[in-house]
Backbone:
């Protein structure tokens, strides 16, 4: 087994990111703008309906995800001949659970008497959108098995572009939450049809006779991921449901939903990054552990740099940025955003660390950590919401993510390898302290000027990242050189 990180591996790493980076640059700003505009157009109450429906579906969709994408990537990386069998098995499993969830939603509508309500139809239509999103993620994951990053990026650009274009158009014409949700659902239908056609032509993935022994094997392997996803879904979605139950005000839910949506949109970056990195790390870990560890460190450094940059700018200018994005109707949200934005840092690193545990087949330990954090999060929300409303929810999320990060770090160092998590943590504390104190003294002396303070925090954050070697000029040079020639 090689213990060196050779030039070919480094080029492979950089090339892997170049296509994904370009796709994100093309779609991410407009994707964020779409949901910011949706909040502005729909208002606090209608956006509260959307946020509640989104959280409800997020919990129900654990029956569709099941962690099956991880399995097909991990297993097909070592034996590509089984990819089509896994493909059909996963589609059948998800088709069955789709019908199961639809029955749950219909039963809820009948029993609660909400069958004709806007909230009921929002949940039903949004389920269609989210279920197709899971299938589309699966389709894109198939391309990473073959290391076809150009195709992965092209599919991502098309998927997001359809949602952006159709979503913007219908939102402008209807100004209704059901119209908006219906539009993005239709966009996903178009992408699903196209992606299946592409995978069929390029990799001969097609509907075929089901091997039920494969399904049994998949479900058995998926059980730890299923348990993990239950905890993740409850932890990540329960806050809005508890807020709605305790406060009983859709406007408050809408305000929190607006700042929570910023975190969800940011999470697309580590999600996409790890969909590329996971198959690479899984394959390379057995061939060249040194490369896998360095690859993991670069993932951590990149996401840390990005999340620090965003968190410092937004965290030290929360009122101005929240009002700029959402308008005066959502201005109160800045009281929660000032805490919630810092979640970007630990949650970014947790995406990498969680995937590293899956690489070494320690998903049971990951499930235990997230399960424990779920209990902590629910307890904190129940206590803090009653006293601080959605601000308490924001604080609970931050405390919980820090707990997950601490536990994950210990487990990864023990089972995966000695990654640079301790040094990165120390550098993070130093950077935030210096930027925070500089912003405080600048505002105390000159008075608060939003644009000047944003410029100060942005420039100082970037400068300190280079000084502390969170990011390196050499890595950026290699990255953009590959981006230019690929």
Residues:
């Amino acid at each position: 087994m090689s213990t060196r990180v050779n030039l070919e591996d480094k080029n492979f790493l950089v090339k892997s990111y170049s296509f994904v980076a370009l796709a994100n640059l093309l779609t991410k700003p407009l994707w964020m703008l779409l949901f910011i505009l949706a909040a502005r157009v729909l208002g606090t109450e209608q956006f509260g309906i959307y946020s509640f429906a989104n959280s409800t579906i997020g919990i129900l969709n654990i029956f569709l995800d099941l962690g099956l994408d991880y399995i097909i990537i991990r297993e097909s990386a070592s034996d590509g001949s089984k990819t089509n069998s896994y493909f059909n098995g996963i589609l059948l499993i998800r088709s069955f659970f789709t019908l199961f969830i639809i029955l749950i939603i219909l039963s809820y509508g009948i029993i609660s008497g909400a069958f004709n309500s806007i909230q009921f139809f929002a949940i039903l239509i949004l389920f269609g959108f989210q279920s197709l999103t899971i299938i589309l993620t699966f389709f894109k994951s198939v391309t990473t098995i073959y290391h076809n990053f150009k195709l992965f990026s092209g599919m991502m650009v098309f998927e997001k572009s359809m949602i952006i274009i159709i979503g913007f158009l219908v939102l402008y014409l209807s100004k209704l939450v059901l119209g908006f949700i219906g539009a993005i659902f239709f966009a996903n239908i178009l992408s699903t049809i196209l992606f299946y056609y592409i995978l069929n032509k390029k990799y001969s993935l097609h509907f075929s006779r089901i091997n039920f022994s494969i399904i049994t094997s998949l479900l058995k392997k998926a059980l730890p991921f299923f348990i993990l996803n239950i905890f993740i879904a409850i932890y990540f979605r329960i806050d809005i449901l508890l807020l709605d139950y305790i406060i009983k005000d859709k406007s408050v839910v809408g305000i929190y939903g607006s700042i929570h949506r910023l975190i969800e949109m940011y999470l697309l970056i580590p999600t996409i990054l790890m969909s590329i990195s996971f198959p690479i790390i899984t394959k390379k870990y057995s061939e060249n552990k040194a490369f896998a560890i360095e690859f993991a460190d670069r993932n951590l450094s990149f996401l840390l740099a990005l999340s620090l940059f965003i968190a410092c700018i937004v965290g030290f200018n929360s009122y101005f940025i929240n009002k700029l994005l959402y308008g005066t109707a959502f201005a109160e949200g800045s009281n929660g955003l000032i805490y919630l934005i810092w979640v970007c840092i630990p949650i970014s690193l947790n995406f990498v660390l969680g995937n590293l545990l899956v690489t070494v087949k320690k998903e049971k330990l990951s499930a235990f950590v997230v399960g424990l954090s779920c209990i902590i999060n629910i307890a904190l929300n129940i206590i803090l919401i009653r006293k601080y409303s959605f601000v308490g929810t924001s604080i609970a999320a931050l405390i919980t993510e820090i707990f997950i990060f601490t536990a994950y770090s210990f487990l990864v160092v023990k089972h995966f390898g000695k990654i640079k998590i301790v040094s990165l943590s120390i550098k993070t504390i130093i950077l935030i302290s210096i930027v925070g104190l500089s912003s405080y003294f600048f505002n105390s002396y000159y008075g608060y000027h939003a644009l000047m303070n944003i410029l100060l925090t942005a420039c100082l954050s970037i400068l300190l990242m280079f000084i502390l070697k969170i990011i390196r000029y050499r890595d950026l040079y290699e990255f953009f050189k590959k981006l230019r020639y690929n």
